[in-house]
Specification:
The structure holds two protein chains of two kinds.
Chain A (H helix, E strand, L loop, with lengths): L1 E6 H12 L4 E6 L3 E7 L5 E8 L5 E4 L2 E6 H8 L7 E7 L4 E6 L2 E6 L19 E6 H14 L2 E7 L4 E7 L4 E6 L6 E3 L3 E6 H10 L5 E6 L5 E7 L4 E7 L7
Antiparallel strand pairs in A: 1-5, 1-7, 2-3, 2-6, 3-4, 4-18, 7-8, 8-9, 10-14, 10-16, 11-12, 11-15, 12-13, 16-17, 17-18
Helix pairs in contact in A: 1-2, 3-4
Chain B lengths: L2 H13 L3 H13 L5 H7 L17 H12 L5 H11 L2 H6 L22 H13 L5 H14 L3 H11 L9 H12 L3 H11 L2 H18 L12 E4 L2 H7 L3 E6 L3 E7 L14 E4 L11 H10 L4 E10 L8 H5 L8 H7 L1 E12 L2 E2 L5 H11 L10 E3 L2 H13 L4 E5 L10 E8 L6 E10 L8 E9 L5 E7 L5 H11 L3 E5 L2 E4 L4 E5 L2 E4 L7 E4 L2 E5 L11 H10 L1
Parallel strand pairs in B: 1-10
Antiparallel strand pairs in B: 2-8, 2-9, 3-4, 3-5, 5-6, 6-7, 9-10, 11-12, 11-15, 11-16, 12-13, 14-15, 16-19, 17-18
Classes of the chains: A alpha+beta, B alpha+beta.
Family (chain B): Belongs to the ATP-dependent DNA ligase family.
Catalytic activity (chain B): ATP + (deoxyribonucleotide)n-3'-hydroxyl + 5'-phospho-(deoxyribonucleotide)m = (deoxyribonucleotide)n+m + AMP + diphosphate
Function (chain B): DNA ligase that seals nicks in double-stranded DNA during DNA replication, DNA recombination and DNA repair.
Amino acid sequence: MFQAIVSASTLRDALDSVSVLVDECKIRLNEDELAIRAVDPANVGMVDLTLDAAAFESYEADGGVIGVNLSRLEDIAGMANTGDLVHLELDEETRKLHIQIEGLSYTLALIDPDSIRQEPDIPDLDLPATIVVEGTHLDRGIKAADMVSDHIGLRVDEADETFHIEAEGDTDDVDLELGRDDLIDLSAGPADSLFSLDYLKDMNKAIPSDAEVTVELGEEFPVKLHYEFGEGMGHVTYMLAPRIQSD
Amino acid sequence: MEFAAFTDRAASIEAEAADLEIVALLAEMFQMAGPDLPVVARFVQGRVFPAWQSATLDVGPRLCYDAISRAAGPNVTADDVERKLAETGEIGTVAASYEFGGQQGLAAFGSGETTELTVAEVDETLRSLAAAAGSGSQDRKVDTLFGLFNRCSPEEARYLARIVLSEMRIGVGEGAVRDAIAEAFEVPTENVERALQVSNDYGRVAGIARDEGVGGLDATGLEVGRPVQAMLAQAGTVTDALDEWDDAAVETKYDGARVQIHRKVDGDAEPASQSTDISVYSRNMEDVTDALPEIVDFVAESVDVPAILDGEVVAVDDAGDPLPFQEVLRRFRRKHDVARMREEVTLRLHAFDCLHADGDDLLEEPLATRHDRLSAVVDDEAAVSTLLRSADPDEIAVFEADALEAGHEGIMLKDPDSTYSPGNRGKHWLKRKPDVETLDLVVTGAEWGEGRRAQFLGTFLLSARDENGTFETLGKVATGITDEELATLTERLEPEIVAQEGREVEIRPSTVFEVGYEEIQRSPTYSSGYALRFPRFLSVREDKAPESADTLSRVERLAERQ
């Protein structure tokens, strides 16, 4: 069984962070949290999301799993104003999700969870560098990189204790240097990896500009991006595999 | 089977010129395909789905270029891919020219191992593309395809790109696959051919030939709900007919769209007319059920046993007189405004053959018997074609005059003893039209116009298929096209342009023109060895796919006969 009331903005933030990678996902309705884990069709980017029971106005669940079409659910959530509350209730008999927003009722047909791509195992990575940066800085670096290239380098200069967001185009180059003063925290280590902007741009879209983003980085290793939403009760971790640096 | 093993063999087949060798190589590949045999038998023809299924990958060239450019990176764009394609003229060559694999997968860093691509995995992934629909689905399709290309070696990428765009081009036609199935599993070609005709699924027939042998092939029957290819007619005269047969079965030739109607009967529905499990297919086996609600209603009312009917849907005016073919096409394949168009264009069914009735497959029965079963199954005489049996040329001439008088296209002459052979344009059915023959040819190229017509494609290069499915050019048509038609044609063909050089463009085979002409001449100018004299554009054959356009052998026959 599942019955919950949540603010529309918290629900939208949660859905947006997943829908940048997949169209359909499984939602685990655990007793103490709602959890989603999904990997994109090319197995390059992953999202791991939890939303604590405390993030809801009320939350009751007993560990079931449902499959949903995310764009459909986002459309429905989009019908609510920011302050509205969304009521969610699972009908176990019909396997449909009843959604109520300010007098609007919507019955959403669910997808068989077994028909959705299996959730990935999270690679257990011990990454040597950790950078904590404001979402707005990250956004600026990604936008600049996008002007010249379809790839982006993330690098830590251990000696200077700086974090670099850089991109090399066919003719033009971009480098955003962030020093200790610009960063919330930096634990320097050998870190230099190249990533596809296609993915990073999408992930960046979901990250609120006022969020603190914890970036964990290594050399030619996946990057982990962690941030919180819903007054600290929603947690998202993205993981993105690197591209091989050709030269 | 690993995908690399498949592409290795596809490459050897492509390099081979001799037909017998190609069949031998194919047979060998089928023998080693194991559980992937059905998929392999489709892949060699650039197919993911069997011919009878309406499903397509729904992947346009541009989406494929996007995926390739992303896998090729860094800083390769879809436009770069298109430019390369314009230079090389073939997507496989372009895909094979890149070094893929720059993007690593998460699995490489976790417990999961990166494995080689398999034929089964490629098939499953491509099928998931067809299933994807919705607002984000285009992006997801690019992601999915990118993921596949990213794991490809150059050789694998070459054939993956071709399968995705259904342009396999390794010199393997349907006949070669049929012969290879027979050779690989030591079964007679005729039995394979028959099973293919009734099932329309090379993958399935290959599996049956291997696992169940001749017995299994012969037990393969029609299935109500799974379309088969329509039997076709060639042009002929009353003299041709009466020379060959004792008497002829003569019918009106309707100027409409060919349909195959599959009537299932749900055992629980009482009366049977309450069951509406009815599908209507075009002659390309496309599902057109939703566009033709009154035909569905009619069949629900007047047929109450499981049946497969062959017939023609004709547009009629208020007096019930036939309207030109173009009127039917306003209804065919329509997805929107069906109800409104139903008000504007009235359709009527003329059923003329019955392939299955109440549990009995009738393909092997003579035409006369099939027509009797048809009359018994359809509870409305007006919808069943009138069949005149006659050996008297004068009587047939009167029948023909009446048909033309009533506004129909001409007459059909059929051998009353002939069986129904799906997909065959045999000499058992003859169509007699009073006017000269036309050809249905595929547009494979064009030229941008000049002056006032500079923004339109003006001159169209026409091709006919040879038996391997390769398109051979046959002439250019530029007359008979109005300015309005030029604009529509340009809009339609521009997205299909695969390469451009100066004003000349190459066009992906997608559109079929009906073309009139004065004469077919031998000519070294075009790759077919023939040229059309005074070709003129008549219409776009909306109901025909490039695969069912006229063949080179028909062109040859027409050339001989003139």
